[in-house]
Amino acid sequence: MMNAGDEFDYLLDEGEMGNFMDYDMDGGFSDGGGGGSDSEDDYALLTRVTDTSAAQARRGRDIQGIPWNRLHITRQNYRKTRLEQYKNYENIASSGELVDKKCKQMNKGGNYYEFLYNTRLVKPTILHFQLRNLVWATSKHDVYFMTNASVNHWSSTSRALTEVLNFSGHVAPDERHNGSLLEGFTRTQISTISVKHNLLVAGGFQGELTCKLLERHGVSFCTRTTLDDNAITNAIDIYKNMSGGIHFMASNNDCGVREFDVERFQLINHFCFPWPVNHTSVSPDGKLVTVVGDHCDGLLVDSRDGKVLSSLVGHFDYSFASAWHPDGLTFATGNQDKTCRVWDVRNLSSSIAVLKGNLGAVRSLHYSSDGQFLTVAEPADFVHIYNTKVDYKKRQEIDLFGEISGVSLSPDDESLFIGVWDRVYASLLQYNRKHAYSYLDSYV
């Protein structure tokens, strides 16, 4: 991935980070009157903070509140322009073009989650354009996400927004643990977060890790994983180990993967690999770890000693996402070649499915807890929900406009949240799982 020293120069200039409001809209946002006051009125209309409910969407309102009737372009035509102009970021030239020639998309037509609500009070942001795991649901109503330097909590029932941690100033631990930096950190730039099992872990651009137990006041643990110049924390995986204890694994650009236990906040394992590690995920039984990073091939390793058990050969670029199916037999990897590949541990000679995106890298992956669905998020505009029960050959496509800061399924699979980063239309989209019998919907 990009080196830590470069990120603030390239972030807003990369083609992959195009904002919805930055594109030429066939004449801009004027309704054709040509006067300055008309343009100002139109811009006020476009930027007015308004939410969208399912009832409003059924009556024809755009789910993001975009007033297409006031613009000099239709949604359909803008989608066509966006697909033509969006530039996917690649570390290996033409990797996406190669995939376009070799792979076809799976059929659409699935209808598994339906739109419930979009709130523009929630304004997710992205600091590093390749890292998109910044939205985490801990229940069907509770979501944690990043806005600038703050980790915030959103309740979809009370519509309440609460700041949990603010990294713009000084953050220091309230507890004492071996290896913890009691002086804490000042003005930490957060690259990634994870929230699970009542634990919040935030990773920083200089290898910082900040841990907070959600039921406790303050911060429990702060540490810097490495003093390497290229130390950015790319991903954090929180999980239960083979004994049932809560652990987390941090993936860093210094080629290291570090495992911590949460009971004592102690470093248990430190594995080193030949290239920067962008993401890891631990199998449901805690025995295996998928490792992907700045190499076309991924790795499957033993969680106890970091020994490589198999290489994962098939992608054409660097990978930034991985996820395990609850059965512990299959897992997925997401790549900048615009594909997600699904693998079976019983035969790793090749992937068992190749799932192709529309316009960009696969930057976030999540299986539902019941194993029926795999959510695949592109860097912008599209989230795909694949049905695993039909061998991933059918999908639901969620179509929006804006960079995706993260996607998250609630632990009970009832809610799907999508963070949208945009200068004007930043928001949090919520979808609810559809049930075979409508009367069940009144209970979720």
TrEMBL record:
This is LOW QUALITY PROTEIN: uncharacterized WD repeat-containing protein C2A9.03-like. The keyword Phosphoprotein does not apply. Keywords: WD repeat. SMART domains: WD40. Pfam families: WD40. WD repeats lie at residues 312-353. PROSITE patterns: WD_REPEATS_2, WD_REPEATS_REGION.
